[in-house]
Write a structure and sequence with these properties.
The complex is a heterodimer. Chain A is mainly α. In chain A, 72% of the residues lie in helices and 0% in strands. Chain A contains five helices and no strands. Chain A is elongated and about 55 Å long. By secondary structure, chain B is mainly α. Chain B has one domain: 3 helical TM bundles of succinate and fumarate reductases, CATH 1.20.1300. Classes of the chains: A mainly alpha, B mainly alpha. Chains A and B meet through helix 2, helix 3, helix 4 and helix 5 of A and helix 1, helix 2, helix 3, helix 4 and helix 5 of B.
Chain lengths: 134, 131
């Protein structure tokens, strides 16, 4: 079924993997979809890392409090901001991907993209400020 | 040649890809539930607590709440499932052979099962420590 291959363009045949990294002439929606997948991969990796970090709790208060000291360092807080961006972007653009994938709101997908990702960006900025001030 | 193809968005093409889109539907619905669970998780863990993160005793008190306990385990199962289905969708896009996809499926199932079992063990151990 050639019509269900999203990442190859007959005008520039190449492998599916390489096509993902070719951003020439891509629409905003396509780039948003690609970024959704990239953030998804990052969040999946983080989820497993998070489980490993939480195992520090089994070492008792000292193990966890040692981790907290590292977690409150400026470098770690910067990584938290990157994580927050991934979470918020994947969350809000993911709503659009799910709705459009189900055949809903096809015509409004660009509006949905700007509306949802815009809302997400506002929340991201607020969240990022709180990370450093709370 | 290209114009003869029906126009579909990338999201719709992803949705139709395999097993009649059933796995994609599971991923989409789990994603919509995760929006709520992850939102609650982020707020409860990082924005409600003074200082941004719970200390040891606060974590134990938190997981000892049965509602929180169930929400956290739901979050774990849905998060792992959603994430690994996403990884599978990306690999499927690269058009692997049937035998490769079988191997990928088993690897992802094993990773998911280990993560979920470990997450349950961790949650139950913390609840025991809190009690």
């Amino acid at each position: 079924m050639p019509d269900i291959q999203p990442t190859t363009d007959p005008a520039r045949p190449k492998s599916s993997l390489r096509a993902w990294f070719d951003v020439r002439g891509r629409s905003v929606s396509t780039l948003a979809f690609a970024l959704n997948r990239l953030t998804g991969l990052g969040l999946t990796a983080y989820l497993f890392l998070h489980l490993i970090v939480l195992s520090q709790l089994l070492r008792g208060p000292e193990g966890w409090n040692d981790f907290l000291r590292i977690a409150k360092s400026p470098l770690f807080l910067m990584l938290d901001v990157v994580l927050l961006f991934g979470v918020v972007y994947h969350m809000f653009n993911g709503i659009r991907v799910a709705l459009v994938g189900m055949g809903m709101a096809n015509r409004q997908q660009k509006g949905l993209l700007y509306g949802l990702v815009g809302t997400g960006l506002v929340l991201f900025v607020v969240g990022a400020v709180l990370i450093f001030t709370k | 040649m290209n114009s003869a193809l029906p126009h579909r968005s990338l999201e719709q093409m992803a949705a139709r890809r395999d097993r009649s889109g059933s796995l994609w539907l599971i991923q989409a619905f789990s994603g919509l539930i995760l929006v709520i669970l992850l939102g609650l998780h982020m707020i409860a863990h990082h924005y409600v607590v003074e200082g941004g993160l719970r200390d040891y005793q606060q974590v134990l008190d938190y997981v000892n709440n049965p509602v929180v306990f169930i929400l956290q385990l739901s979050f774990l199962v849905l998060g792992v499932g959603h994430g690994l289905l996403g990884v599978r969708a990306i690999i499927t896009d690269m058009r692997p052979s049937a035998s490769t996809l079988r191997v990928v499926n088993w690897v992802l199932i094993v990773i998911g099962a280990v993560a979920i079992v470990y997450g349950f063990y961790l949650a139950l151990a913390l609840q025991r420590m809190a009690g």
